[in-house]
Amino acid sequence: MRMIIHDLDEDFNERLKTKSEEVIWADGKYAPCQGCFNCWTKNPATCSLKDSLHEMCRVVGQADDVVIITENCYGEYSQAVKNILDRTIGVSTPMSTYRGGEMHHTLRYGKKGKLKVIVYGDVSDNEKATWKLMTERNRINHGYQLKELVFVDSIADLEVSKI
User: Fold this and answer.
1) pLDDT (tens digit, 9 = 90+) per residue, 37-54?
2) Model confidence, pTM
3) Phi, psi (rounded to 5 degrees) for 109
4) Closest to 37 measured CA to CA, from 47, 50, 22
5) Contact 127, 91 (CB under 8 A)
6) What is the pLDDT of residues 108-149, one digit of tens each?
7) Distance of CA 71 to CAs 7, 77, 106, Å?
8) What is the residue extent of each domain of the chain?
9) 115: enclosing H helix or E strand
10) What number does CATH give the domain 2-162?
């Protein structure tokens, strides 16, 4: 399964639904992570908050490929996308293992295919360096085999057909 997480508008949301089985619109109509770690320990992969992201760990965990479309916010995901990603900590377990000679949390759902991150807006050279490092770390931490990082100047430059 392929999943798209994005912070675009409702029009893009509807167009993206034709490109993927699972589209998560970061519309802000959900609570931020409370840091209780219940999705890690007490109720594995299930958030204690009963909103639209209640099962987000399972949905992301079962996706083979994930595409994240986000506005650049000082070399980081937009707040709305970051809130969704924070709610997916349960895709791993509290246990640790070595991957690539480094200590990482054990993956609850196993290895994945590809993580693709599309960043739109003004991005400085320093922010691009931060994005490159962060997406590589996200790839390793979440068990993706491949990653792709794409920068576009504006939403107008984003072609739904190439996502």
Assistant:
1) 998 889 888 999 999 999
2) 0.93
3) -115, 5
4) 47
5) no
6) 998 899 999 999 999 999 999 999 999 999 999 899 999 999
7) 7, 7, 30
8) 2-162
9) strand 112-120
10) 3.40.50.360
